[in-house]
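Sequence in, structure out. Go.
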Amino acid sequence: MDIKELCKQISSSAEQDTWIPDEEYSVFNQWDKEYYQSERENFTHKYRVFKSIASALQPSSIIELGIHGGSGADAYLTGVDYNATYVGYDNFGTAHDADGNPWEPADRCKLLFQARKFERYDLVQCDLRQIEKVAHADLAVVDAMHDYRNCYQDLLLCLDSQPKYIHIDDYPGELQFAVEDFARNFKENVVGYGYIPHVCGSCIIEMKYDDT
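Output:
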């Protein structure tokens, strides 16, 4: 299926989905929850898109660059009934809520996976600009620093791990330029890419490699 048609299919699936993110392990309960709660309908749809991406692609392995508290991970893994391996990369820096109380993203991720009885995961605490390689996966997710330079560098990390698909969140703006340049510079690897509308916007890149 053409990547743009696939994106349309995913968008349609998300529009029809009635799944609700688990309040306890979603953005609606994280350190800056007031913002997300004020946009609940839009962000519920966004995470339905994430779930629909995994459901359509059915990856057996997922890596995510920028996991934070695990709300995206829960959506992707729900899309495959938690039947995949997962590796999340983040600096997992301590955040603070509106009252100044500390909020630990890595702890929230571990509680999430414990609640799901999911053990096929690894959380890698790192500065993505200080590592040279990430794990191989069928689906790679780019959702860390949302600027041109860091997005492009994360795409290069993904290229080395040879995923079949790369999903980029918060796509419009600088990240769109990063994707366009990546597709132009690595046209021998990029089959195509398509856009999925939601409150932040998503892009999926389909990849190919010499040995596949």
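Check: The mean pLDDT is 97. The beta strands are 61-65, 85-90, 95-96, 102-103, 121-125, 139-142, 165-169, 190-196, 202-207.
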